[in-house]
Amino acid sequence: MGMRKINTRSFRVATRGTYREINRQIVLNLIREHQPISRAELARRMKVRRAAITRIVRELLDHNDVVETGTVLAARGRRPTLLRIQTSGRLATAVDIRPTRTTIALADFSGAIRKREVFPTPPRPEDLARELGVRVTKLLGDVGSDEKCYGIGVVVPGMVDRRGGRVLYAPRLGWRDVNLRDALAKFVDVRVVIESAPIACALARLWSLTGDSRAVNNFAYVSVSDGVGVGIVVSGEVLRGEAHTAGEFGHVSLDPYGPQCACGKRGCWEAFACNSATSMRYIAEVRGAQGTGGGAQGAGNGARRGPLPPIEGSARAPSPAKPSPAARLPARGPGSGPGRVAGLTPITPSATTSRGR
Fold first, then answer.
1. Cα dihedral 283, 289, 290, 294 sign
2. Are 230 and 249 in contact (CB under 8 A)?
3. What pLDDT, in 10s, does the model give residues 153-199?
4. What is the C-alpha separation between 255 and 295, in angstroms, rounded?
5. Fold (topology level) of 90-203
């Protein structure tokens, strides 16, 4: 007898509709990944009879979850009708919170951005919730009468209890134990979901995979911006951990005598590889090149003589005789490579994706 381990403290008993719901989700995923697709092709991929697919598709059509989009030539017989996921009129709102600015975007279910706006992030979470409520309400007030927003997804650079809707700890924001979901829900009439930024990136990557890359169900997504975070996907599921802190490799110390991190420790991967650390190395390198105080040591004392050239300009237009300081710097500092090796090797992902903003 084969037996799979089940968490006996958290489970749902199968009902008469469980089998139907599982097959319904399989059909929806197959349509999304291979659309446009015919009923015959769905039956072939699921290895079931055409009649079984017909019943499920009829339910999906009745609920407006899928739409028929014409026919295609066939070798013989009737032309098969093609199916697509219904995305028209179905909207979602995304909120990306960062220490200095917050971005709101309204998109349809195909991922097409309809509207987007950016504003400075208020320091207090209650003020941010109020500001978001006003802006999101105004944004949704402009949608058509035949359109509907199904939810608001908020991503935060920190540790998040997704079920409770709480930001457990976000050092870059200076937040600890903030119930952001309920604070925002007071101002909007749409479901609100809070998620950690690197986990949200990993989920986006998982749902956007195409072609042969769909087979990659074990990977790590390294997000580098104001901080460093890792989203881990194992067997197609995001790894969260008991305390909702899985993937917090950014605050693993690589050097106890290294630079100070926003979390209070020294030598964290984030302290070596985040955007501000890269900018400081650039500033130190420029000072050294200008003879104004010598490299990394001068970068920390706050001394500055004259304006520094912008990173973008130097990186895009280096002098042939004198390479830009940005070109001479390691991509993300001395801790970037060792951080990835130390943090991700024990997980043995089949792929690692790094993105910076």
1. positive
2. yes
3. 999 998 999 889 999 999 889 999 999 999 999 999 999 999 999 99
4. 20
5. Nucleotidyltransferase; domain 5 (3.30.420)
